[in-house]
């Protein structure tokens, strides 16, 4: 937890007040969050399925990322009835579903302009 008087905290709060874009980016920033949202949207809605799709992620990191996405109301946890032990699945909220095409667009943008790709400059702008 950050100190509320730290420069980083104060700068973050300022940026969130200036533009909602900064707050939105903060909600989905992190190495795994966009992939987690994508895989849940594709039906990989259980913890073990997400681990299979993201072989480089530790259990602790996956749990933390899921908890953060849940705290931002991007997904919710639901118990799966009649399972022993109790099964949990993750469901994207409307907010999370609205995020999927944005992440798809960002992925396409990254395919065009990822680090190392040649970028032309338009003189018209």
Describe the overall structure.
- There is one protein chain.
- With 125 residues, the chain is mainly alpha-helical.
- It has one domain: Arc Repressor Mutant, subunit A (Orthogonal Bundle).
- The protein contains 6 helices and 2 strands, in the order H-H-H-H-H-E-E-H.
- It has a two-stranded antiparallel sheet.
- Strand 1 (75-80) and strand 2 form a beta hairpin.
- Helix 1 packs across helix 2 (20-28).
- The protein is globular, with a radius of gyration of 18 Å.
- The model has no long low-confidence stretch (mean pLDDT 88).
- Keywords: DNA-binding, Transcription, Transcription regulation.
- It comes from Spirosoma aureum.
- One of its GO terms (molecular function) is DNA binding.
- Residues 19-118 form the HTH hxlR-type domain.
Helix and strand arrangement:
Blueprint: H1 7-18, H2 20-28, H3 33-41, H4 47-53, H5 59-71, E1 75-80, E2 87-92, H6 94-113
Antiparallel strand pairs: 1-2
Helix pairs in contact: 1-2, 3-6
User: How many domains comprise the coordinates?
Assistant: 1
Outline, from the CA principal axes? globular
Structural category is: mainly alpha
Name of the CATH first level: Mainly Alpha
CATH topology: Arc Repressor Mutant, subunit A
CATH architecture: Orthogonal Bundle
Number of strands: 2
Beta content comes to: 5-15%
Regions with little confidence, pLDDT below 50 for 5+ residues: none
